[in-house]
Design a protein that fits this description.
The structure holds two protein chains of two kinds. By secondary structure, chain A is an all-beta fold. Chain A contains no helices and eleven strands. In chain A, a hairpin with a 2-residue loop joins strand 7 and strand 8. Chain B is built from no helices and twelve strands. In chain B, strands 2, 5, 6, 10, 11 and 12 form a six-stranded mixed sheet that branches. A four-stranded antiparallel sheet of chain B has the order 3-9-8-7, with no helix packed on it. The termini of chain B are far apart. Classes of the chains: A mainly beta, B mainly beta. Chains A and B meet through strand 5, strand 9 and strand 10 of A and strand 5, strand 6 and strand 10 of B.
């Protein structure tokens, strides 16, 4: 299995909702990442997990809460988001921090 | 200072021709990696090619080659025999050091292949 999967593909939520994004990989990668990407911009790193431990949080607001239950799974819990949080959320994984393999992303719209 | 610079916001190329997408980088770390990704309109980031800072030879992957000029700190992507399916956004990226928390993307180049 050489892919990263993300669910859901699309998500529309209100500012008071709580939702979660899910990412899964079965390549044995021990590093996993969350990125946020606005249209026509490069991805912005949000969180890095290395061996299931959060190793970096790029000053992301607390309304985004990551979770890494095991080495194959990465979640991003969303609560009280703002319309400006609407973006493509990309998950990636890598072996020893070499090339990152990305999932297809979740297109999030916050109303 | 920008870690990765892509100076071409948009490029056009005739089908079957070769095209070079420019990328320069800035780091003082002797250990780094350089990557190119393709992002079609569907949104998925597709890994294309990788060059390590200690690699002696330029990386090649099928129709993709990386023109690595270490002294000039450039890592241009060359796509040979362009196809219509190559139309996409292309991002140059760099991993600085050996940890994953220093991974930088350039602003991207939008490539359009003309039939």
């Amino acid at each position: 299995d050489t892919e990263v999967t993300q669910t859901p593909k699309h998500l529309v939520m209100g500012m008071t909702n709580k939702k979660s994004l899910k990412c899964e990989q079965h390549m044995g990668h021990r590093a996993m990442y969350w990125y946020k990407q606005k249209a026509k911009k490069p991805p912005e790193l949000m969180f890095v997990y290395s061996y299931e431990k959060l190793s970096i949080n790029e000053s992301v607001p607390s309304r985004f809460s990551p979770e890494c239950p095991n080495s194959s799974l990465l979640n991003l819990h969303l609560h009280a988001l703002q319309p400006e949080d609407s973006a493509l959320y990309l998950c990636a994984s890598s072996l020893r921090h070499n090339e990152q393999f990305f999932g297809p992303g979740t297109r999030l719209t916050v109303l | 200072a920008q870690k990765i610079t892509q100076t071409q916001p948009g490029m056009f190329v005739q089908e079957k021709e070769a095209v070079t997408l420019d990328c320069t980088y800035d780091t003082s770390d002797p250990s780094y990696g350089l990557f190119w990704y393709k992002q079609p309109s569907s949104g998925e980031m597709i890994f294309l090619i990788y060059q390590g800072s200690y690699d002696q030879q330029n990386a090649t992957e099928g129709r993709y080659s990386l023109n690595f000029q270490k002294a000039r700190k450039s890592a241009n992507l060359v796509i040979s025999a362009s196809q219509l399916g190559d139309s996409a956004m292309y991002f140059c990226a760099m991993r600085e050091g050996n940890t994953g928390n220093q991974f930088y993307f350039g602003t991207g180049t939008s490539l359009t292949v003309i039939p």
